[in-house]
Amino acid sequence: MVLTTLIFDVDGTLADTERDGHRVAFNQAFAEAGLDWNWDSDLYRRLLAVSGGKERIRYYLEHVRPDQSVVDNPAGFVARLHAAKTRIYTDMLARGVIPLRPGVRRLLTEARRSGLRLAIATTTTPDNVTALLEHSLGPQSPGWFEVIAAGDVVAHKKPAPDIYFYAMQRMGVSAHECLAFEDSGNGLRSSCAAGLATVVTVSDYTRDHDFDGAVLVLDSLGEPDQPCTTIHPGRISGRLPLFNVDVARSLLSH
Ligand code: XBP
Ligand code: MG
Questions:
Q1: Which of 30, 60, 94, 137 is within CB 3.0–4.6 Å of 37 for a Cys-Cys bond?
Q2: Are residues 30 and 123 in the same domain?
Q3: Residue 237 lies in domain
Q4: Probe ligand 1: pick from 51, 124, 145, 196, max atoms within 8 Å of CB?
Q5: Do residues 189 and 236 share a domain?
């Protein structure tokens, strides 16, 4: 099948946003609300099994802090807390706190020059995606992506396939002409359930996840001066110093 489209996850894939970004923003929102909640790095690693910031807060409220007296209804409490967290997080991105991962800018630039179509499929909010793209790739960069499928636009978040089906449906493409990029077990299960060949670039929190089903697992997309390491070669034989459009096309030609 001929490759026409690259579909990117955001958190952990475009940038390593979780430990030093989202987690910090959650904790600042908790402090702002006068809560004695603090998600340290190890607890957050476990909470990441729950996709979606609102869902994650709700899970924590119900399973870890059921003692927390919630002023009105839990849904309203969670929504307000998450809105504060998103404000704090987008401010962090605007300050350039979180850089893109190696090879992301290079692959996006090469893909655009090669005429490949681009999309995003993520659990995070559209505001967070726009803030990351604008501040790391420039004000025009959200327009590089024909579809930014994000957050609550679908009823069921990753590992459900909904967000990938939504992106492909809006683009009018089939799974066989697309290649997905993910970082986590939940993300890989989502893209595979949507029928997409998927490249995984592991992140700090996801290194030990089960990536069975990926067509290639790397530690990053690599840069000429920062070669990537292949963790699971999948369909690729031989050494792979960096991931580029030729490699992407070869993955779909098998
Ligand atoms: C990762 C997620 C998100 C972020 C937090 O999304 O599960 O929930 O952890 O962002 P993906 P929000 O890897 O699919 O990009 O608080 O905006 O949900
Ligand atoms: Mg991710």
A1: 30
A2: no
A3: 5-16+100-253
A4: 124
A5: yes
- Convert the pLDDT of each residue in 4-60 to its tens digit: 999 999 999 999 999 999 999 999 999 999 999 999 999 999 999 999 999 999 999
Query: Same domain for 62 and 143?
Result: no
| Residue with CA closest to ligand 1 atom 5 | 53
Ligand 1 atom 6, closest CA: 123
Q: Note whether 80 and 109 are same-domain residues.
A: no
Our CA angle for 172, 174, 175, nearest 5°, is: 135
pLDDT band of residue 254 (cuts 50, 70, 90) is low
Alpha carbons 207 and 224: distance in angstroms, whole number = 23
- CA–CA separation, 35 and 24 (whole Å): 14
Residue to mutate, 10, 11, 43, 198, ligand 1, most ligand atoms under 8 Å from C-beta? 11
Q: Count other Cβ atoms within 10 Å, centred on residue 15.
A: 20
pTM for this model (two decimals): 0.97
Q: Which alpha helices (H) appear in 95-172, and where do they start and end? A: 104-113, 126-137, 162-171
